[in-house]
Write a structure and sequence with these properties.
By secondary structure, the protein is mainly α. It folds into four domains: 146 residues, HUPs (Rossmann fold, 3-Layer(aba) Sandwich), CATH 3.40.50.620; 111 residues, Glutamyl-tRNA Synthetase, domain 3, CATH 3.90.800; 51 residues, Helicase, Ruva Protein, domain 3 (Orthogonal Bundle); 108 residues, Arc Repressor Mutant, subunit A (Orthogonal Bundle), CATH 1.10.10.350. 45% of the residues lie in helices and 10% in strands. It has 18 helices and twelve strands. The strands form five sheets. The chain has a three-stranded parallel beta sheet, covered by helices on one side. Strand 6 and strand 7 form a beta hairpin. It is elongated, with a radius of gyration of 33 Å. Bound molecules: glutamic acid. Glutamic acid (GLU) binds next to loops.
């Protein structure tokens, strides 16, 4: 038997940025297509001319690419308007659709009346059986019309690949519009014409489209098209069980990108919304799961969006990066926070400092956007804020001794004249470690060691009692900055009579 190559499609409407739910639909289409050696089609559904924009289309495409998704064919519905019209005319000829001359005012009024009576809204089929004469007269008078589909009483069944059998009675569906009065197609009609024309074998989309699927199946049948397979993904809910919305924080991929999530972490996380590999391994690149993935393993339960888990995953991906890669990734965040500007990056001293910060803080980061908060403490000219615990340490008699000796040792380090302006290159981590050891050895007999040795140095340099390893802190600051900070601390203690 000849086997048909599976063909999937992802069909975003460019009426907003790439929402996380839509991104997850795109991702499952991509995984499904790639895991079945099929094709993936990107189709921009922009027939709602009032709400669709080129900017949203571009931002959706750029976010899809950012997530690492690719596609084999690309279409835009606004380029295909004539196909829809001709298929609708075929249905008209076959008596499966009719011209409806009701004005939009009448339709609105009807809707209002039905709502006030507590009845389901829908068209009352007024134009379904217009006499030939009347139609001709209306056309002659250039009365605008829509083309409506004649819904016949029937039961619609389909076998959802995720949810199993789903049944609908067409009685709850009234005659619906195929072509609007401005000649553009309705969503349901354009989708069916396109899915057929593009040879789509699998429609994977959100659960919110299930009722549309019933309408679309009627259209597939009436047009004599082959009905594709359907798989409806469950909704994504916030941790409070409500549908995910702005209230829960970031909702578009652009926002997550701006918050410092890495593309691989984001793609990994989205794939875990309704699916998990059977081996329980939760951290993976999309390419690694292609041979494990089956559409039927997607869960039909609502997926809960868990920001803690995304943060955890993102931290894992950050730690997969080399210092060099991370350095490049954090720069836009430092620039955005006005901590540095592009021009200043020519200064190798600043570059070295940022690079050392990357090394010092990489293990703490959950998102790239947290990085500026850490670096800010190490940029020159910083005014320290002292934690109470730091002041308690600095108060101690022994602390003064440690700080004084540390200062002496710093001053002993040669700044090698004008030829090497970057004194960070001299006070490196190794040298800092050696200095701390020397101070420890000097105070050995007085039992100043461990915390009594480290804490005063850290507190005098940063105002804090916790942070990255002390030699790293010293090396990031460099000789001059260390001396500045200590000077600042001693002045603070004196001014506050501590
Ligand atoms: N344009 C529709 C949407 O953005 C796509 C629905 C479909 O996949 O059929 O929701």
């Amino acid at each position: 038997m000849e086997s048909i190559k599976p063909r999937f499609r992802f069909a975003p409407s460019p009426t907003g940025g790439l929402h996380i739910g839509t991104a997850r639909t795109a991702l499952f289409n991509w995984i499904s297509a790639r895991s079945m050696d099929g094709d993936l089609i990107l189709r921009i559904e922009d027939t709602d001319l009032n709400r669709s924009t080129k900017e949203f289309e571009e931002s959706i495409i750029s976010d899809l690419k950012w997530l690492g998704l690719n596609w084999d064919e690309f279409y835009r519905q606004s380029d295909r308007i004539k196909f829809y019209k001709s298929e609708a005319e075929r249905l008209l000829k076959e008596g499966k659709a009719y011209m409806c001359f009701c004005s939009s005012e009448r339709i609105e009024a009807l809707k209002g009346k039905l709502i006030s009576e507590g009845k389901p809204t829908g068209y009352d089929n007024q134009c379904r059986n217009l006499a030939e004469e009347e139609i001709k007269e209306n056309l002659k008078n250039k009365i605008e019309y829509t083309i409506r589909y004649k819904v016949n009483p029937e039961e619609i069944r389909f076998n959802d690949l995720i949810r199993g059998e789903i049944k609908f009675s067409s009685e709850v569906i009234s005659d619906f519009v195929l072509i609007k009065s401005d000649s553009t197609p309705s969503y349901n009609f354009a989708v069916v014409v396109d899915d057929n024309d593009m040879g789509i074998t699998h429609v994977v989309r959100g659960e919110d489209h299930i009722t549309n699927t019933a309408r679309q199946i009627m259209l597939f049948e009436s047009l004599g098209y082959k009905i594709p397979n359907f798989a409806h993904l469950s909704m994504i809910l916030g941790s409070d069980g409500a549908k995910l919305s702005k209230r829960h924080g970031a909702t578009t991929i652009t926002q997550f990108k701006d918050e410092g999530f890495l593309k691989d972490a984001m793609a990994n996380y989205l794939s875990l919304l309704s699916w998990a590999p059977r081996d329980g391994e939760e951290i993976f690149f999309l390419n690694d799961i292609l041979d494990k993935f089956k559409i039927s393993d997607i869960s039909k339960n609502p997926a809960i969006f868990d920001i803690d888990k995304l943060n955890w995953l993102n931290g894992n991906y950050i730690r997969k990066k080399t210092n060099e890669e991370l350095f490049e990734l954090v720069l836009p965040f430092l620039i955005r926070e006005n901590l540095i500007n592009q021009g200043e990056l020519k200064d190798s001293g600043l570059k070295t400092k940022i690079f050392k910060c990357v090394d010092a803080f990489r293990d703490k980061l959950k998102t790239l956007a947290e990085f500026p908060g850490y670096v800010k403490d190490f940029l020159s000219g910083k005014i320290l804020n002292y934690e109470d615990e730091a002041l308690n340490i600095l108060k101690l008699e022994t602390s003064r001794k440690v700080i004084n000796l540390f200062t002496e040792k710093l001053k002993e380090i040669k700044t090698s004249g004008e030829s090497i302006p970057d004194d960070n290159s001299i006070l490196n981590e190794e040298k800092a470690r050696a200095i701390i050891n020397e101070i420890g050895a000097s105070f050995n007999s007085e039992s100043i060691k461990g915390k009594l040795l480290y804490m005063p140095i850290r507190a005098s340099l940063t105002g804090k009692v916790h942070g990255p390893e002390l030699p790293k802190v010293i090396s990031i600051l460099g000789k001059e900055e260390c001396l500045n900070m200590i000077g600042q601390t001693l002045a603070f203690l004196k001014n506050n009579q501590i």
